[in-house]
Amino acid sequence: MNKVCLIGRLTADPEVRYTQTNNTLVASFNLAVNRRFAKENEERQADFIKIVAWSKTGEFCSKYFKKGQQVGITGRIQTRNYEDENTQKHYITEIIAEEVYFADSKKEGENAFSQYGSAFADNNGTEFAVTQEDDDLPF
């Protein structure tokens, strides 16, 4: 099974491009994910992980995700390699996003979707938003 779940902050706004073959939208961005523990007397470290979102999921990311926002990503790890013009081989590991979520709390500030309690998009292009306030829930 190849399944990844991450929560982190965007290091920059998503970059959007389109494939040459069939003009499919691809959004890519880096996610700073804090490590769980820090060594004594040291600052907590973060890993910077490349995320790639295709089609409708990528469109959602490009539309609503902004630098500094905390987001959740579920997806899969993908590795690839290529050879540059100097015949040097390069290896790339990235996460292919299958579902994306907002993970900021309302108290942490406004975001592009601040009118919703939470929102996410899945790989089928379906956007979901919970618009009901916590105080109005029946439980």
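That was protein one. Protein two is written in the same sequence-then-structure order:
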Amino acid sequence: MGIDPGLNHTGFGIIEEKNKQQVYLDSGVISTSVKTDFALRLKKIFFGVEDLIKLWQPDVISIEEVIYAQNVKTALKLGHARGVVLLAGAKANIDLYEYSPRKIKSSVTGNGAAGKDQVKFMVTRLLKLKQQSLNLDASDALAIALCFLFQNKLLR
């Protein structure tokens, strides 16, 4: 399971590897409203991830590392969203792997500075999906899941 944490939209992507092929299972977004109390938004993300864990029972969760934001307040809010995702995984005793945005982009596209559209394009090609049906947050989460598979071949 790959998770792209965000306070407004937390993307998730579920894939597995069968016969050395990456297979798409599910993806989507856990969305919260800016009109909702901050703590309740974090609660929704936590329980959303927890529900996904119960449904899919992933072996691992891969997540994007903390990014550096120019706005300190934005970075702190993102940190909170990451924290509840990490907590949900730890609570379920699932191995957690963190990757930098550059490592994720490089693993999927070959270019650590790739844009979101390029990442989405490659994710859809690698998983044989229709590009227009994939939300950017979900495609980022799938890229994070793919990054785990590509970076940890020796673990499997």
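The chain has a mean pLDDT of 93. Keep this in mind for the problem set.
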